[in-house]
Amino acid sequence: MSTSFNPPQRTLMGPGPSDVAARVLLALARPTVGHLDPQFIDMMDDVKRLLQYAFRTDNTLTLPLSGPGSVGMEAVFVNLIEPGDKVVVCVNGAFGGRMKENVLRAGGVPVVVEDEWGRAVDPDKVEDALRQHPDARALAFVHAETSTGALSDAQTLAAIAHRHDVFCIVDTVTSLGGVPVEVDAWQFDAVYAGTQKCLSCVPGLSPVSFSERAAAHIRARTRPVQSWFLDMNLVMGYWGSGVKRTYHHTAPVNSLYALHESLLMIEEEGIENAWSRHRHHHLALRAGLEAMGLEFLVPETERTPQLNAVRIPAGVDEALVRRRLLDDHDLEIGAGLGPLAGRIWRIGLMGQSCCKRNVLRCLGSLEAVLADLGHAPPAGAATAAAHALYGKEA
Ligand SMILES: *Cc1c(COP(=O)(O)O)cnc(C)c1O
Fold first, then answer.
1. Whose CA is nearest to atom 8 of ligand 1?
2. How remote is the CA of residue 311 from the centroid of ligand 1, in Å?
3. Angle at 282 between CA 271 and CA 176, to 5 degrees
4. Separation of 83 CA from ligand 1 center, angstroms?
5. Which CATH number is associated with domain 271-393?
6. What is the pTM of this model?
7. Based on C-alpha coordinates, what's the Rg of the chain?
8. CATH for 21-268?
9. Any ligand 1 atom below 6 A from CB of 190
10. Do 321 and 373 form a contact (C-beta atoms < 8 A)?
11. What residues does each domain of the chain span?
12. What is the pLDDT along the chain (394 residues), one digit of tens a residue?
C-alpha cells in the first residue's frame, strides 16, 4: 500500500528551488476554478501586471508560460529564430550551452562567444563577433550563470546588440528578483525567467517578456512557429488583452495562484529592496565562508549575490558533506555542474532563502560538518564573521 507523501522540512540553499513562503503554499491550496472563469481571468491580468513590475517593463507581451525555465528558453528561440538565422550565443557555463543547443534545434546557426566557466561574458568578444557577422539576427546570453555564479553586464551587452541592430535575448532565470533586471531601460527584446529561483514560487512556470519589436516580428512570421504549444501567436489567444480568451491549453490554475502570491510579496517589499537584501546577505555569507578559509570561484566584481560558488578544499569528500548537511541539518546546497562537478559547492541565497537566519544556519552547519569530518576550521569563526558584518550594519 502506498501512503501520502510527506516531504521533510528542508532549508533550500542550492541553485533552486528556493524556500517557498507559507502564504504562497497556502495560495496553492485554494479551490481550483476553471481556466476560463472570469474571476480567474482577472487574476491572470494581475499576474501580467505584477510580472511587468518585476521585469521593469511596459511590454504587453509579458506572461508566465506553463512549464519551467527551460520552456521559456525554448519559447524565445522557437519564436524568434527561424532556420538559417545566425545567432551570437555567449557560453560561459551550462545554461549558455543550452542556449546554443536551442539555436541549433530551431535550425539556426550559432556563432559561439566563449568565456571561461566562472567568468562574466566579455563584451569585447561580443562586439567582435557581431562585427564579423553583420548578418546575425540575435545576441543571446545568460545574465546570471547559475552553474558558476558569474553575473554578466547585461546593460552593456544589450547596448552592443542594439548598435548592431540584432535582437537581444537574455536568460534572467536566476537574475530576476535578485539583481537589477531592467527590461525596458536596457532594451532587452526577449527574456525568460523561472519561478523557483529569486521569485520563490513553486517550480513549473516561466515568466517571459517580448519587446514590441520582437512581438511584431513574431506576428509577421510567414513560416509557422515549429512548436505548436509554444507559438506565442496562439498563446496570446488565451493570455492576450482585448481578445476573447479562448482555450489553448489548460493553464496550471493553482500554480498561477501561487505565482500571483509570490509576486505580490515582491511588490510589497519593493523590487529595489529585494535587490539590496540579496546584496546584504551575500556579503554576510561571503564574510563567513572566507573566515572558514573557503575561496570563491568568481572574481569579486563578477559575482552574482544569489549564487555563491566556492571551491572545495583539498581532501574534502564534497558529496559526503552535502549528504551530511541534508541528513543532519535539513539543509540543501548545490554541487558543481559539468567541468566544475566535484570542484565547487553552489550556495544559493535566492528569494525567501535569502535571509539572516539561513546565512547563519548554513555557516554553522557547514562548520559543524567540516569539523566532524576532520577538516576543522577555527570553531565559530564563520558565524562570528557573519555576525560581525550584520552587527556593523545594524
Ligand atoms: C534554472 C535555470 C534554467 C532552467 O530552468 P528550469 O526551471 O530548471 O527549467 C535556465 N537558465 C538558468 C540561468 C537557470 O538558472
1. 69
2. 22
3. 35
4. 25
5. 3.90.1150.10
6. 0.97
7. 21
8. 3.40.640.10
9. no
10. yes
11. 21-268, 271-393
12. 999 999 999 999 999 999 999 999 999 999 999 999 999 999 999 999 999 999 999 999 999 999 999 999 999 999 999 999 999 999 999 999 999 999 999 999 999 999 999 999 999 999 999 999 999 999 999 999 999 999 999 999 999 999 999 999 999 999 999 999 999 999 999 999 999 999 999 999 999 999 999 999 999 999 999 999 999 999 998 998 777 888 999 999 999 999 999 999 999 999 999 999 999 999 999 999 999 999 999 999 999 999 999 999 999 999 999 999 999 999 999 999 999 999 999 999 999 999 999 999 999 999 999 999 988 777 789 999 999 999 876 4
